[in-house]
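TA notes. Do not distribute before section.
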Amino acid sequence: MTSILNPLLVIGVCTHVFHIHCIEEWIETNDPPTCPKDRTSWAVKS
């Protein structure tokens, strides 16, 4: 389940908010996926 503020923003479990297209690109290029701001393991807040 994803937590979306509006169709373009996503909240991570770390509480940082990102534009969906930006975070998708970041996740695709980083393994393991991390938050771009604090490098915690990335997951969408549910």
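Switch to the second chain here.
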Amino acid sequence: MSSKLTSTLKNMVFSLGLISLVAGVLLSLTYVTTKPAIESGRQAKRIASLKAVLPAFDNDPIAQSYLNKEDPTTIFYPARLNGVDVGMAVQATSSQGFSGDVILITGFTPEGKITKISVLSQKETPGLGTKMTLPEFMNQFEGKSVEKPLAVKKDGGEIDAITAATIS
């Protein structure tokens, strides 16, 4: 008889279990080692977005941020300069994107007008839904007031929609 292991159910289960264990450990190690770098990148993007949508500020909007009590996916970032409120940034998440969440940060003046919009995260269709990140689309929101609801042109509003895009 050969010293070769016979192909039995027990051997197959053991082999697959061992391979799964090794793969799981390697995946866990990869996650643990890359998590700080990923989080650092997200934080840097958030800071850059806040600087892009808000006027000059000297406080730390991230440290002073707070959640919307009615919708914990919405985060408010107050901006102050010399102790005076100069604006507010609002991070909002929509789950109605084509391939996942769309996360935006919108800057507002103390009077409630939109300063700028920055896309933090989106997984829209390349060449179509991703057009929401283009300046010609995002700039049309500047100066709009929160007192007047936004509507797309086909519904009588002023916003040019992206044809065939879902939430964008």
